[in-house]
Write a structure and sequence with these properties.
Number of strands: 21
Strand content: 15-25%
CATH architecture of the largest domain: Orthogonal Bundle
Number of helices: 16
CATH superfamily of the largest domain: GroEL-like equatorial domain
Structural class: alpha+beta
Largest sheet: 7 strands, mixed
Radius of gyration: 30 Å
Distance between the termini: 25 Å
Length: about 550
């Protein structure tokens, strides 16, 4: 082979970065995402305004929403977005914590790489620290049950504090706790909570304080006939998954009519069929009908005359919610409808909210499906209130299902760091440095909280470490008072799962990124440059560093 001759094994236009450059760029991209959301952490966190390419605006400080709306293109940054998504899916709250922790773990790993420590040793040390963290967190957690309403309200308030809905956190927290307690079910001694049974309806107008919990279901429909009563007391509800219409034949059929009397008889027969259908509903004892399919105009007239309140073309999910709330059964054959299939509610009424007619099924007896109606001045306010309520609902559910909670305000992180440093001394070899780096990274949470409260971050950390050395494990940052204090007594409480999942996701993502020493970006078909929107030469000077 001729000396110095190049051999091309990658397609034209492919970009490749290897070794330390690849690691540096991946770490830089992940840190950039973490730095973006870091200022949103805690009760004094700031909001971000995200504007997409068609001018739609999202204003939020919810970590998962921010990283999703940013539409990042760098492959390493996408992995950090995955961390936020996992946290959001698993727990709902703590997305900012998970992203910030990932960025800090990588930042500390970079310092170790600069000292010449091999990436796999750092990854192994991080894995050991993450496993030990799970044990420590479970050790410092406290038990909680469905009956601990005061604690559950505090969990909801902690989730809502710092978001746009904070001014109404007392009202919203109480609504969320009541909703979760209502839909929770005992399955063989284990509490199971399906949050799909808590429906959220948003309506502009009024203030957030006007939000309410309906012990039943709200359907975004109106009654089918103006002759029907707007309100039905002591409702007996039929749930029908069949049309109140004359069916067309499956095959093409032709009816030949030779004189007018036959036409009259044919129309009369159709009318009778519809009348018989309505009579079946009446016979069951129902005074309210929710139909998943259509209701013929004539059938609407007969239902109105019989004093039956009817709604048509109700969504399948709403039908299932109605069945859970009212105790009724969804019937697919009208002839099978009987009294035992009916659901019960105290009232069914049609109300106008924000210009839209809606049907309220209220005061069901022990409903297993409920609706929270959220009110707010504008769409943007409502969207942020909904995000806050979702975080609160998921936080309460995660607390009850795991049955464990910890105090918030950075207290568990300080205790975790303290015990990890002790554990590091028992770890031999260079992994000890990685465990120490992990412990230091965890302290980014109380450090950020202190900074957002205008406190001196280093003084605060020193003070908290001293308190934790004295076994005061609940000492954290009281952000709103710009001081340190007992977070449990202050009612700042978080689900254990928020912490365990954040540590798990952040450590796994950082371990994976550390093990990458080669980034090969092939050219997009029909376009120049590497995929993932990286500029030629990669992100952050991928190609122009000294090799």
């Amino acid at each position: 082979m001729a000396q110095g001759q190049q051999i091309f094994i990658l397609p034209e236009g492919a970009f490749r970065t290897t070794g330390r450059d690849a690691q540096r760029n991946n770490i830089m991209a992940a840190k950039a995402v973490a730095e973006t959301v870091r200022t949103t952490l805690g009760p004094r966190g700031m909001d971000k305004m995200l504007v997409d390419d068609i001018g739609d605006i999202v204003i939020t400080n919810d970590g998962a929403t921010i990283v999703e709306e940013m539409h990042v293109e760098h492959p390493a940054a996408k992995m950090v977005v995955e961390v936020a998504k996992t946290q959001d899916d698993e727990v709902g709250d703590g997305t900012t914590t998970a992203v910030v922790l990932t960025g800090e773990l990588l930042s500390n790993a970079e310092a170790l790489l600069d000292q010449g420590i091999h990436p796999t040793i750092i990854a192994r040390g991080y894995r050991m620290a993450a496993e030990e963290s799970q044990k420590i967190l479970h050790k410092i957690a406290r038990k909680i049950t469905l009956e601990d309403t005061k604690l559950l309200v505090e969990i909801a308030e902690t989730a809502i504090t710092g978001k746009g809905a904070e001014m109404s956190k007392d009202i919203l927290s109480a609504l969320c706790v009541k909703a979760v307690q209502q839909v929770s079910e005992d399955s063989g001694g284990k509490i199971v909570i399906d949050l799909d049974n808590v429906k959220i309806e948003k309506k502009t107008g009024g203030s957030t304080n006007d939000s309410e919990l309906i012990q039943g279901v709200v359907i975004d429909k109106e009654r089918v006939h103006s002759g029907m009563a707007k309100k039905v007391e002591n409702a007996k509800i039929a749930l029908l998954d069949a049309a109140l219409e004359v069916k067309e034949t499956e095959t093409d059929a032709e009816i030949q009519i030779t004189d007018p009397s036959q036409l009259t008889a044919f129309i009369a027969q159709e009318e009778k069929m519809l009348k018989d259908m309505v009579d079946e509903v009446k016979k069951s004892g129902a005074n309210v009908l929710f139909c998943q399919k259509g209701i013929d105009d004539l059938a609407q007239h007969y239902l109105s005359k019989e004093g039956i309140f009817a709604v048509r073309r109700v969504k399948k999910s709403d039908m299932e919610a109605l069945a859970k709330a009212t105790g009724g059964k969804i019937v697919t054959n009208l002839k099978d409808l009987n009294k035992a299939d009916l659901g019960i509610a105290k009232t069914v009424e049609e109300n106008k909210i924000a210009g839209d007619e809606m049907v309220f099924v209220r005061d069901c007896k022990n409903p297993k499906a409920v609706t929270i109606i959220l009110r707010g001045g504008t769409e943007h306010v409502l969207d942020e209130v909904e995000r806050a309520v979702n975080d609160a609902l998921k936080g309460i559910a995660a607390s009850i299902e795991v049955g464990m909670v910890v105090s918030g305000g950075g207290a568990p992180e300080i205790e975790l760091a303290r015990q990890l440093r002790i554990y590091a001394e028992s770890v031999g070899g260079r992994e000890q440095l990685a465990v120490d780096a992990f412990a230091e990274a965890v302290e980014i949470i109380p450090r950020t909280l202190a900074e957002s409260a205008g406190m001196d971050a280093i003084d605060t950390l020193v003070k908290l470490r001293a308190e934790h050395d004295k076994k005061n494990v609940d000492m954290g940052v009281l952000v709103l008072k710009s001081t340190t204090g007992d977070m449990w007594k202050a009612g700042v409480i978080e689900p254990l799962k928020v912490k365990t999942q954040a540590v798990k996701s952040a450590s796994e993502a950082s371990e994976m990124l550390l093990r990458i020493d080669d980034v090969i970006a092939t050219k997009k078909s029909g376009g120049g440059g590497p995929p993932g929107g990286m500029p030629p030469g990669g992100m952050g000077g991928m190609g122009d560093m000294d090799m």
